Here is the input.
Amino acid sequence: MCLIEFRDKISRVYSILIENIKAETIIPIICIQVASGSKIWKDEHKGYSSLSKNGFIDESICHKYEFVNSQTGVNTQTVEFLNNAMKLLI
Here is the structure.
C-alpha cells in the first residue's frame, strides 16, 4: 500500500507491505497516516468505500473508462508508478 502527500509536488510518501486490500486492513492504516478531512484520490476498489465515513474527502477514478478524469484531474498515476517501482525492489 502506498500513500502519497501531493501538493505542487510529492512532499511525503508512506508505503507498507500488506497481506490484503480489504477495508478492515487498509482503512485503519489510512486513518493513522492521513489527516482527517484530507482529500484522497483513489480507484473504485470496494475496500475504499468507507473513506468518507471516516472523515475523508474521497474522489475516485474508474479505470474501466479512463486513467485521468479530464474534468476533476483525479488520477492514480503517481501511486501506480511508485507501487510498480517498489515491486521491482522487493
